[in-house]
Design goal:
Blueprint (H helix, E strand, L loop, with lengths): L2 E5 L5 H13 L5 E6 L12 E5 L18 H5 L4 H4 L5 E5 L3 E3 L16 E5 L13 E9 H7 L2 H10 L5 H9 L4 E3 L18 E3 L15 H9 L2 H5 L10
Parallel strand pairs: 1-2, 1-4, 2-3, 6-8
Antiparallel strand pairs: 4-7, 5-9, 6-7
Amino acid sequence: MKAAVYSGTSNLYSDMVTAAKSLLHNSSVDKIYFLIEDDAFPEYLPPQIETINVSKQQFFPKSGANFKSSFTYMSLLRVCYTSLLPDIDKVLQLDVDTVVVDNIDELWDVDLNRKWFAAVREGFSSWKPYGPKYYNIGVAMFNLDRIRKDGITDKLIDFLNNTKCPYIDQDAWNRFGIGKIVDLPVRFNETMVTGYTEKPAIVHFAGHKNWTTSPMTPRREYLKKYREMTWEEVLGEDPDSGSNI
């Protein structure tokens, strides 16, 4: 099964919808999981999207080193997929500030073997605290089966509860994932720190202030396109008549 996951607090719900529309339009993904902080999503979602209320999570106490980070506890939970998605062996993680603009089905075919995840290197960033390579996991294909077998989740949780990290889950995965990461081409996570390409597959607006409103945001035309797309246009058919509102 091709599975993907987004996470966000209520102020990010509209961005999650835009991002998911772009993914459904440019892949054959079977299931998208929304990790949210409510029992019900405040607008219609098609059957391909399932919501999971994680607001009562017990992995990260409020007294933890990173709980009050500007990235919110949702970022912390991105090291807990083995528990939150117990029946999934491989999942594509996407930030809510991403837009898929070309077919990405090949990502689910990436040979992860005994590696933990596949991601794009931040080649234009000076932040490399764990060696010569540092990966942006705003787009990352996680090998949950291997992560479970290697028993790394508890170590990641303990690290984040006790060590202050500027980029939270991304730092944790880079710290513990040395030698366990597969390099993806830049076009699968095009940002100011990974680089730009002539034909992007996933545009990531990370690092751009006011990215949702500024007319100066690079590649903003893609964001506008999927914001305005209806579910009928995204799916190529009438959406299911049911609603999870």
